[in-house]
Known about the structure:
Blueprint: E1 3-9, H1 17-20, H2 28-44, E2 48-53, E3 63-66, E4 70-75, E5 80-88, H3 91-100, E6 109-112, H4 119-128, E7 137-141, H5 147-161, E8 168-173, H6 190-204, H7 208-212, H8 216-222, H9 227-237, E9 242-250, E10 257-264
Parallel strand pairs: 1-8, 2-7, 2-8, 3-6
Antiparallel strand pairs: 1-10, 3-7, 4-5, 9-10
Helix pairs in contact: 5-9, 6-8
Amino acid sequence: MPLVFAAITPHPPVLIPEIGKDNLVKLKKTEEAFKKLEQELYAAKPESLVLISPHGKVSPEYFNINLNPDYAANFKEFGDFSLELKFRSDFMTIQEIRASDESNQAAPMVMISEPEIDHGFAVPLYFLTKHLKNLPIVPITYSGLNYQKHFEFGQFLYRQLAKLNKRIAVIASGDLAHTLTKDAPAGYSAQGKEFDKKVVDLIKAKNFNGLLVLDSGLIKEAAECGLRSIIILAGMTESLNIKPEVLSYEGPFGVGYLICNFRLV
């Protein structure tokens, strides 16, 4: 079994102590869930960590895989000029994925080389690699393609990773609705809460097909950024015996933050 760990996480920069400061008390559930998830990841003894982010360079037609040898991350755009994180690439795994489909017939993907990774990667890494400082990573950015293509890309990734003799963890980074309160980043919509509830319920029920056919109007009203990341993860785990365990959900700043461990059983 190539996957030894799989989870969904949010990526709120406000959760970083240097940024959030007094606001951290409002994210206690998320903070505690990240701590628990970090322990689960450490116990899984991964040799590589695949991360899927909705930010950075999102191509309308291709999934991007960053094969730079090393990566740096900072939070300057969020007001913190002191914190800088360093990570190294799992270059060999990326090359295996690349070589498996150079014609792009099975999966429309392109290789990019960027020395910096965005907060969609950096926030989960900040919390989850505290005791895995040298864990190599595979940063993937989702695309503008439809949800079925994202599910199929997840299936493709699993098939390729299954060929490797390596313990692999995967994180789907993404926030849910950005419209939960009147001061939310995308404004208020009553359908934001409806979207989040549906997504969480579908994940709990392992109803991944339900994620693919969510009402487009509901998705638009939610102004989410995590659904495609979650669907890729769903494709990667659909053939496995998993038990989704929701560790936390909250949205005190108008954005839905979900942490869910896809426990492998």
